Amino acid sequence: MLGRQEVLELLKSMGIELPRKTKLPDAELDKRLTKALDSAQYLSRVIPDPPLDPRIYPSWFENPSNAKLLDGVRRHSFGEASLFAEGKDFPLYGNAFWDLRQTVMGIGNACDTLKSDELPPIAVQDKEGLSGIVMRVLEVKEFDKNTPIIVLLYRHDVRSTVSQEAIAWLRDNRDEGRSMATVTATLKEQELLLRLLKQNSRRIAKKYQPKRLSTESAFTCSFILPVGPLTAKDTAKYSANNGCTICGEPAKSKCSRCGVVRYCGSVCQRDDWKAHKALCNQLKGARWHRLTFIDGQQLPSIPGAVAFTWNKFDIVQHRVERLEKQEQLVADEPPENTHGSSTFIVKVQLSSSNARGPGYQLLQKQFTPSELEGSTMLIYDQKRVFEVTVMRDGDRASFDAVADVVRSKGERGLKVFCWAVRTADWTVDICLDHLPDWQNW
After folding, report:
1. Which helix (H) or strand (E) holds 164?
2. What is the superkingdom listed in this entry's lineage (predicted)?
3. Dihedral angle computed from the Cα positions of residues 224, 226, 228 and 234, in that order, rounded to the nearest 10 degrees
4. Quick check: helix, strand or coil at residue 256?
């Protein structure tokens, strides 16, 4: 069982940031880690209704059009892809979640390299040999052309208590002439991998009974799916804090000077003052304008029209699949409020008759250049979880007040960064004074 601090560190490695003195119960933190690992495997795509029965899927290796398993388990976002194109890669042994993704690719590479009549036994261990996970890949199944399912048996041991069964298993594999693949993994990474394997072991159909070696009676059957970065929406969801900015407890008051940042009481407010002081001075007495928006995926004034948006947090494979299927993105519900009532930075971008892209091409067919110029504004946060469109026809006074600031202070008079607060499902308040520094999104 992982300790509280270990769970917090693993969540942080996945990009999930919680209040620095969070008082979320251990059970809730543990639940968030479970859900985050499921999301990193995009589990709901493959197993919408557990359990998983590997027998119903074809073999990955029997389809000649499938990529190598290494490429099949690789998952990355558009932002990461741009780094890879520049010849950069993840730094090793500094982030447990990045290392986990590398290990899954290492397992895939071992299956590609050592595949014969039997898939290889694999040892995942740290450099010092303090802890290790031994596994034997039973079979690799094909969920779809981009998604393999690696079915395996595994066992975990630490050096101080290596079991006789594990020693016998290693000896039997050696005596049978099976090549053993070794993957180096830090202790924290092993904790994350073990957690993933344990979660997935509970999702294997009980009627699936693979053939075991005589030394594998104590091994656990599980599976591994491709592991990639969390989507922006998932990261925001698991980081969500609608309470005190310091501890996450229910907020009972706001800062009396700026009226924005929320606290559970005077203790947390005093604790935060040093960090909050600069922002508080900026927001004190600032002008705020309320804007009513529509979902950013919908193209305004064109019934039923939708737009595909691309950003660095999108997962390459799944985004491509969505485009291939031409799925419509019409939203009947407002964007999820992952910021609660806390301030956050948004980019405000005015429409222009010179803009490019499929969305604007459709708008240009509906409106004259003069009608299109400054008729809408796009507002979004860093990860585009909140991405909305505001129409000038909705509330011209508030729209024009914000647009004037964009034109006078923004880059090329088209875009500027502002402080924002969600005030209702379909409204957002924008601060027009003391704009934040330019953000490199």
Report:
1. helix 164-175
2. Eukaryota
3. -70
4. coil
- Report the C-alpha gap between 330 and 296 in whole angstroms: 10
Whole-number Å distance between alpha carbons of 84 and 170 = 37
Distance (Å, rounded) from C-alpha 134 to C-alpha 270? 50
Tell me how far apart the alpha carbons of residues 247 and 105 are, in angstroms, rounded to a whole number: 37
Residues in the chain: 441
Among the residue ranges 15-24, 56-65, 145-154, 363-372, the one predicted with the least confidence is 363-372
Domains in the chain: boundaries: 4-16+23-233, 240-285, 286-431
Q: What is the pLDDT of residue 46?
A: 93
Q: Which of 345, 354, 404 is nearest to 379 (CA)?
A: 345
Give the Cβ contact number of residue 53 at 10 Å.
Answer: 14
Q: Give the closest residue to 424 by CA, choosing from 263, 291, 288, 316.
A: 291
pLDDT, tens only, 279-298:
898 888 888 999 999 876 66
pLDDT computed for residue 84 by the predictor: 77
Angle (CA) 155 157 161, round 5°: 140
Find, among 336, 327, 321, 432, the residue nearest to 384 by Cα.
336
Q: How many helices and strands in the chain, by DSSP H and E?
A: 14, 14
CA-closest candidate to residue 148, choices 67, 223, 72:
72
* Block residue for tokens 């011209």: 396
Q: Is 208 helix (H, G, I), strand (E, B) or coil?
A: coil
Q: Which helix (H) or strand (E) holds 139?
A: strand 131-144
Angle between helices 232-239 and 26-40 (to 10 degrees): 180
By the 8 A CB rule, do 386 and 346 touch? yes
CB-CB contact of 147 with 75 (8 Å)? no
From the list 383, 427, 346, the residue with the least C-alpha distance to 240 is: 383
Q: What is the pLDDT of residue 428?
A: 96
Question: At 155, is the secondary structure helix, strand, or coil?
Answer: strand
φ, ψ dihedrals at 194, nearest 5° = -60, -40
Q: How many CB atoms lie within 10 A of CB 218?
A: 12
Tell me the C-alpha distance between 186 and 130, whole Å: 10
